[in-house]
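If you are new to this repository, start here. Below is one unmodified record pulled from the training split, so you can see the exact layout before writing a loader.
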Amino acid sequence: MYEGKRGKVLRVEGPDESFIRSAISKYLDALFVIHAITDARLVPVGSSFRRCVWPDGWPDITAMLPITGQLWAIECKSETGELRESQIDLLPLVEASGGIVTIARDVLPVRQLINDHYARFTVAEINAHKGRVRGLREQAARRQIEREIAANLAGNTQTKGRGRRLNKAVDSDEAGRLFEV
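And here is the target side for that same chain:
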C-alpha cells in the first residue's frame, strides 16, 4: 500500500488470475505444450449460449506434459487468492489419478516444472517431440485454410476476417502459396 494524491491510501495488487492464466497459456504455446483453458462462462453453441460444464473445482488450465502425455492441472491464483473448498477436494484426486497439480501465482512454477520435466530426456528426444508437434500443428493449420477456402468458394460467409484474405488469394490464383511451409 502507498499514499497517493490527495492523501488517499491506494492498494497495489499483483496480476489477477486471468492475466496469470493468459501468460501461462502463451508460455505453454511457445513450448508446444498441448493445453486448454477451462472457462465456465457462457459460450456460443449454435444460435444460443450455454454454460460450460466442468466438475466444480476443476483447474484453470489442463495440459499434457510433453513426451509422456501425463495430465497436468494448473490452478491460477492471484497473490491473495485462495483455493475454494471444491478445489481442495478435487485437486488431490487429480494427483491420486497420476496427474500433476501446480498452483501458480505467476509463470515461474510452470517454468520450473517444465524444466524439471525436460531434464529427464535427451536433447534429441525433446527436439524430436517438438518437431512432431510442430508438423502436426502445420498440418492442422493447412487443413483449416483448405476448409475456409472451400467454404469461401461455396459462398459461405462465415469465414469473417480471413475471408477477405482468402478471397484475394483465390482471385489472384495464389491459393497454392497458402499451403507452402
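Two things worth knowing about this chain: The chain has two domains: 13-121, 124-178. The longest strand covers residues 71-76.
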